[in-house]
Amino acid sequence: MRVLVVGAGATGGYYGARLAEAGRDVTFLVRPARAKKLAANGLVVTSKLGDLHLGAPRTVTADALAEAGGFDLVLLSCKAYDLDSALDDIAPAVGEGTAILPVLNGLAHLDALDARFGAHRVLGGSCAIAATLGPDGEIRHMSDFCTLTYGERDGTRSERCAAIEALMQGATFQPRLSDRIVLEMWEKWVFLATLAGATTLMRGAIGDVVAAAGGRDFIASLHDECLAIAGANGFAPREKVATQARAMLTADGSPLTASMLRDIEGGGRIEADHVVGDLIARGRATERKLPNLERVFTGLKTYEHRRARETSQPRV
Predict the structure, then answer these.
(1) pLDDT per residue over 159-168, tens digit each?
(2) Does residue 188 carry a catalytic annotation?
Protein backbone atom coordinates (compact mmCIF):
# COMPACT_ATOMS: atom_id res chain seq x y z
CA MET A 1 0.00 0.00 0.00
CA ARG A 2 1.12 3.56 -0.71
CA VAL A 3 0.59 5.63 2.42
CA LEU A 4 0.33 9.41 2.63
CA VAL A 5 0.87 10.77 6.14
CA VAL A 6 -0.49 14.30 6.49
CA GLY A 7 2.20 16.25 8.31
CA ALA A 8 5.30 15.10 10.15
CA GLY A 9 4.35 16.39 13.57
CA ALA A 10 4.34 14.55 16.86
CA THR A 11 1.46 12.18 16.09
CA GLY A 12 1.46 11.56 12.35
CA GLY A 13 5.22 11.83 12.24
CA TYR A 14 5.64 9.11 14.84
CA TYR A 15 3.30 6.60 13.20
CA GLY A 16 4.59 7.42 9.73
CA ALA A 17 8.20 7.09 10.83
CA ARG A 18 7.55 3.71 12.40
CA LEU A 19 5.81 2.47 9.24
CA ALA A 20 8.74 3.67 7.16
CA GLU A 21 11.12 1.98 9.58
CA ALA A 22 9.24 -1.27 8.94
CA GLY A 23 9.83 -0.88 5.21
CA ARG A 24 6.44 0.45 4.17
CA ASP A 25 5.91 2.90 1.30
CA VAL A 26 5.33 6.15 3.22
CA THR A 27 5.24 9.75 1.99
CA PHE A 28 4.86 12.72 4.32
CA LEU A 29 2.76 15.67 3.13
CA VAL A 30 4.51 18.68 4.66
CA ARG A 31 4.92 22.39 4.22
CA PRO A 32 8.00 23.65 2.32
CA ALA A 33 9.89 24.72 5.44
CA ARG A 34 9.38 21.32 7.10
CA ALA A 35 10.36 19.55 3.86
CA LYS A 36 13.62 21.54 3.75
CA LYS A 37 14.43 20.71 7.37
CA LEU A 38 13.67 17.02 6.89
CA ALA A 39 15.85 16.91 3.80
CA ALA A 40 18.73 18.43 5.77
CA ASN A 41 18.37 16.62 9.10
CA GLY A 42 16.12 13.62 8.48
CA LEU A 43 13.22 12.63 10.72
CA VAL A 44 14.33 11.93 14.27
CA VAL A 45 12.31 10.02 16.88
CA THR A 46 13.39 9.54 20.48
CA SER A 47 11.44 6.91 22.37
CA LYS A 48 11.62 4.35 25.17
CA LEU A 49 10.69 1.85 22.46
CA GLY A 50 13.82 2.68 20.50
CA ASP A 51 15.23 5.79 18.87
CA LEU A 52 14.96 6.23 15.12
CA HIS A 53 16.61 8.42 12.52
CA LEU A 54 15.17 8.35 9.01
CA GLY A 55 17.93 9.93 7.00
CA ALA A 56 15.87 10.70 3.93
CA PRO A 57 12.10 10.47 4.51
CA ARG A 58 10.03 10.79 1.35
CA THR A 59 8.16 14.09 1.41
CA VAL A 60 5.82 16.03 -0.85
CA THR A 61 4.34 19.52 -0.62
CA ALA A 62 0.72 20.31 -1.41
CA ASP A 63 1.53 22.03 -4.71
CA ALA A 64 3.29 18.90 -5.99
CA LEU A 65 0.87 16.30 -4.62
CA ALA A 66 -1.10 15.94 -7.85
CA GLU A 67 2.08 14.71 -9.54
CA ALA A 68 2.93 12.19 -6.83
CA GLY A 69 0.53 9.52 -8.06
CA GLY A 70 -2.27 7.74 -6.25
CA PHE A 71 -2.30 6.67 -2.63
CA ASP A 72 -4.08 3.72 -1.05
CA LEU A 73 -4.25 5.16 2.47
CA VAL A 74 -4.23 8.71 3.82
CA LEU A 75 -3.39 8.94 7.54
CA LEU A 76 -4.86 12.22 8.78
CA SER A 77 -3.72 13.42 12.19
CA CYS A 78 -3.90 17.20 11.99
CA LYS A 79 -5.39 19.43 14.68
CA ALA A 80 -9.08 20.18 14.23
CA TYR A 81 -8.41 23.87 13.57
CA ASP A 82 -6.26 22.86 10.58
CA LEU A 83 -8.84 20.46 9.15
CA ASP A 84 -10.26 22.72 6.43
CA SER A 85 -6.85 23.43 4.93
CA ALA A 86 -5.87 19.77 5.28
CA LEU A 87 -8.92 18.71 3.24
CA ASP A 88 -7.85 21.03 0.44
CA ASP A 89 -4.27 19.78 0.63
CA ILE A 90 -5.08 16.06 0.44
CA ALA A 91 -7.72 16.33 -2.29
CA PRO A 92 -5.30 15.55 -5.17
CA ALA A 93 -4.23 12.34 -3.40
CA VAL A 94 -7.73 10.93 -2.94
CA GLY A 95 -8.72 8.61 -5.75
CA GLU A 96 -11.52 6.11 -6.16
CA GLY A 97 -9.72 3.44 -4.17
CA THR A 98 -8.24 5.65 -1.47
CA ALA A 99 -9.11 5.04 2.16
CA ILE A 100 -8.83 7.94 4.62
CA LEU A 101 -7.95 7.11 8.21
CA PRO A 102 -8.44 10.13 10.49
CA VAL A 103 -7.27 10.02 14.10
CA LEU A 104 -8.55 13.41 15.26
CA ASN A 105 -10.40 13.85 18.54
CA GLY A 106 -14.20 14.01 18.62
CA LEU A 107 -16.40 13.19 15.64
CA ALA A 108 -17.07 16.45 13.77
CA HIS A 109 -14.24 15.72 11.34
CA LEU A 110 -16.13 12.68 10.05
CA ASP A 111 -18.95 14.92 8.83
CA ALA A 112 -16.46 17.19 7.04
CA LEU A 113 -14.62 14.27 5.43
CA ASP A 114 -17.85 12.57 4.37
CA ALA A 115 -19.11 15.75 2.75
CA ARG A 116 -15.85 16.34 0.89
CA PHE A 117 -14.82 12.83 -0.18
CA GLY A 118 -17.81 10.55 0.42
CA ALA A 119 -18.50 8.41 3.49
CA HIS A 120 -17.40 5.24 1.69
CA ARG A 121 -13.79 6.48 1.71
CA VAL A 122 -13.65 7.42 5.39
CA LEU A 123 -12.72 4.96 8.12
CA GLY A 124 -13.08 5.47 11.83
CA GLY A 125 -9.90 5.86 13.80
CA SER A 126 -8.42 6.73 17.16
CA CYS A 127 -4.95 6.87 18.62
CA ALA A 128 -3.35 7.22 22.04
CA ILE A 129 0.16 8.59 22.20
CA ALA A 130 2.09 11.02 24.38
CA ALA A 131 4.45 12.82 22.05
CA THR A 132 5.66 16.30 21.28
CA LEU A 133 7.98 18.11 18.89
CA GLY A 134 11.33 19.22 20.23
CA PRO A 135 13.01 22.53 19.39
CA ASP A 136 14.84 21.05 16.41
CA GLY A 137 11.76 19.33 14.99
CA GLU A 138 12.52 15.94 16.50
CA ILE A 139 9.62 13.80 17.72
CA ARG A 140 9.81 13.03 21.42
CA HIS A 141 7.74 9.99 22.38
CA MET A 142 7.23 10.36 26.12
CA SER A 143 5.77 7.01 27.23
CA ASP A 144 5.86 3.33 26.42
CA PHE A 145 2.42 3.22 24.80
CA CYS A 146 1.28 4.26 21.35
CA THR A 147 -1.88 2.69 19.98
CA LEU A 148 -3.65 3.14 16.67
CA THR A 149 -7.18 1.74 16.42
CA TYR A 150 -9.14 1.73 13.18
CA GLY A 151 -12.04 0.05 11.41
CA GLU A 152 -15.04 0.35 9.15
CA ARG A 153 -17.66 2.55 10.74
CA ASP A 154 -20.42 0.00 10.06
CA GLY A 155 -18.47 -2.71 11.88
CA THR A 156 -17.80 -4.89 8.85
CA ARG A 157 -14.49 -6.61 8.11
CA SER A 158 -13.42 -5.27 4.73
CA GLU A 159 -10.59 -6.15 2.38
CA ARG A 160 -9.07 -2.71 2.81
CA CYS A 161 -9.00 -3.08 6.58
CA ALA A 162 -7.34 -6.46 6.17
CA ALA A 163 -4.74 -4.78 3.97
CA ILE A 164 -4.20 -2.05 6.57
CA GLU A 165 -3.88 -4.71 9.26
CA ALA A 166 -1.12 -6.38 7.25
CA LEU A 167 0.52 -3.02 6.58
CA MET A 168 0.85 -2.23 10.28
CA GLN A 169 2.16 -5.57 11.47
CA GLY A 170 5.73 -5.30 12.70
CA ALA A 171 5.69 -1.53 13.22
CA THR A 172 6.76 -0.18 16.61
CA PHE A 173 3.31 0.77 17.87
CA GLN A 174 0.18 -1.15 18.83
CA PRO A 175 -2.29 -1.31 15.92
CA ARG A 176 -5.74 -2.81 16.40
CA LEU A 177 -8.58 -3.45 13.99
CA SER A 178 -11.93 -2.77 15.68
CA ASP A 179 -15.43 -3.84 14.68
CA ARG A 180 -16.96 -1.10 16.86
CA ILE A 181 -14.71 1.83 16.12
CA VAL A 182 -17.39 4.52 16.36
CA LEU A 183 -18.27 3.40 19.90
CA GLU A 184 -14.59 3.51 20.81
CA MET A 185 -14.31 7.01 19.35
CA TRP A 186 -17.23 8.09 21.56
CA GLU A 187 -15.61 6.47 24.60
CA LYS A 188 -12.39 8.35 24.00
CA TRP A 189 -14.32 11.59 23.38
CA VAL A 190 -16.21 11.28 26.67
CA PHE A 191 -12.95 10.72 28.56
CA LEU A 192 -11.07 13.50 26.77
CA ALA A 193 -13.83 16.09 27.12
CA THR A 194 -13.98 15.39 30.86
CA LEU A 195 -10.21 15.47 31.26
CA ALA A 196 -9.75 18.61 29.15
CA GLY A 197 -12.76 20.29 30.72
CA ALA A 198 -11.69 19.70 34.31
CA THR A 199 -7.98 20.47 33.92
CA THR A 200 -8.39 23.57 31.75
CA LEU A 201 -11.17 25.11 33.84
CA MET A 202 -9.34 24.47 37.10
CA ARG A 203 -5.84 25.03 35.67
CA GLY A 204 -4.33 21.97 37.30
CA ALA A 205 -3.72 18.25 37.03
CA ILE A 206 -6.37 15.74 38.01
CA GLY A 207 -4.73 15.26 41.41
CA ASP A 208 -4.80 19.01 42.03
CA VAL A 209 -8.50 19.21 41.20
CA VAL A 210 -9.36 16.18 43.33
CA ALA A 211 -7.47 17.67 46.28
CA ALA A 212 -9.51 20.89 46.12
CA ALA A 213 -12.83 21.27 47.92
CA GLY A 214 -15.60 20.08 45.59
CA GLY A 215 -13.11 19.03 42.92
CA ARG A 216 -13.89 15.33 42.84
CA ASP A 217 -17.64 15.99 42.74
CA PHE A 218 -17.17 18.46 39.89
CA ILE A 219 -15.23 15.94 37.80
CA ALA A 220 -17.80 13.24 38.46
CA SER A 221 -20.66 15.54 37.50
CA LEU A 222 -18.86 16.65 34.33
CA HIS A 223 -18.17 13.03 33.40
CA ASP A 224 -21.84 12.16 33.97
CA GLU A 225 -22.89 14.90 31.54
CA CYS A 226 -20.54 13.57 28.86
CA LEU A 227 -21.68 9.98 29.43
CA ALA A 228 -25.32 11.04 29.13
CA ILE A 229 -24.69 12.76 25.78
CA ALA A 230 -23.01 9.65 24.38
CA GLY A 231 -25.88 7.47 25.58
CA ALA A 232 -28.52 9.80 24.14
CA ASN A 233 -26.74 9.58 20.78
CA GLY A 234 -26.82 5.79 20.84
CA PHE A 235 -23.22 5.17 21.92
CA ALA A 236 -23.26 4.70 25.67
CA PRO A 237 -19.75 3.73 26.79
CA ARG A 238 -19.37 0.19 28.02
CA GLU A 239 -19.63 -0.15 31.81
CA LYS A 240 -16.05 -1.39 32.23
CA VAL A 241 -14.69 1.47 30.10
CA ALA A 242 -16.72 4.09 31.98
CA THR A 243 -15.67 2.69 35.34
CA GLN A 244 -11.98 2.68 34.42
CA ALA A 245 -12.29 6.22 33.07
CA ARG A 246 -13.94 7.46 36.29
CA ALA A 247 -11.15 5.93 38.34
CA MET A 248 -8.47 7.68 36.24
CA LEU A 249 -10.36 10.97 36.31
CA THR A 250 -10.69 11.02 40.11
CA ALA A 251 -7.41 9.44 41.21
CA ASP A 252 -5.71 11.01 44.23
CA GLY A 253 -2.40 12.65 43.38
CA SER A 254 -2.70 11.97 39.64
CA PRO A 255 -0.37 14.11 37.47
CA LEU A 256 -2.67 13.58 34.49
CA THR A 257 -3.52 16.65 32.42
CA ALA A 258 -4.97 17.22 28.97
CA SER A 259 -2.77 18.43 26.13
CA MET A 260 -5.28 21.27 25.80
CA LEU A 261 -4.14 22.62 29.16
CA ARG A 262 -0.53 22.47 28.00
CA ASP A 263 -1.53 24.31 24.83
CA ILE A 264 -3.20 27.05 26.89
CA GLU A 265 -0.20 27.38 29.18
CA GLY A 266 2.00 27.72 26.10
CA GLY A 267 -0.27 30.33 24.51
CA GLY A 268 -1.20 28.02 21.63
CA ARG A 269 -4.35 27.29 19.68
CA ILE A 270 -6.86 24.82 21.10
CA GLU A 271 -9.61 22.51 19.86
CA ALA A 272 -12.41 24.02 21.95
CA ASP A 273 -15.13 23.74 19.32
CA HIS A 274 -14.22 20.23 18.19
CA VAL A 275 -13.76 18.61 21.60
CA VAL A 276 -16.27 20.50 23.78
CA GLY A 277 -18.45 22.70 21.57
CA ASP A 278 -19.57 19.87 19.29
CA LEU A 279 -20.32 17.64 22.28
CA ILE A 280 -22.54 20.37 23.74
CA ALA A 281 -24.34 20.73 20.40
CA ARG A 282 -25.08 17.00 20.32
CA GLY A 283 -26.29 17.18 23.90
CA ARG A 284 -28.56 20.15 23.26
CA ALA A 285 -30.10 18.26 20.35
CA THR A 286 -31.40 15.79 22.95
CA GLU A 287 -32.65 18.64 25.18
CA ARG A 288 -30.22 17.93 28.00
CA LYS A 289 -29.08 20.38 30.65
CA LEU A 290 -25.29 20.75 30.53
CA PRO A 291 -24.22 23.34 33.11
CA ASN A 292 -20.72 21.97 33.67
CA LEU A 293 -19.83 21.54 30.01
CA GLU A 294 -21.19 24.99 29.22
CA ARG A 295 -19.05 26.52 31.98
CA VAL A 296 -16.02 24.73 30.58
CA PHE A 297 -16.79 25.97 27.08
CA THR A 298 -17.18 29.55 28.27
CA GLY A 299 -13.74 29.32 29.83
CA LEU A 300 -12.17 27.92 26.66
CA LYS A 301 -13.77 30.54 24.42
CA THR A 302 -12.67 33.27 26.83
CA TYR A 303 -9.10 32.06 26.37
CA GLU A 304 -9.52 32.04 22.59
CA HIS A 305 -10.87 35.59 22.53
CA ARG A 306 -8.08 36.82 24.79
CA ARG A 307 -5.44 35.06 22.68
CA ALA A 308 -6.86 36.54 19.47
CA ARG A 309 -6.88 40.02 20.98
CA GLU A 310 -3.37 39.80 22.34
CA THR A 311 -1.82 38.27 19.22
CA SER A 312 -3.44 40.93 17.02
CA GLN A 313 -1.96 43.81 19.04
CA PRO A 314 1.29 45.26 17.70
CA ARG A 315 4.31 44.63 19.87
CA VAL A 316 6.20 47.64 21.19
Answers:
(1) 999 999 999 9
(2) yes
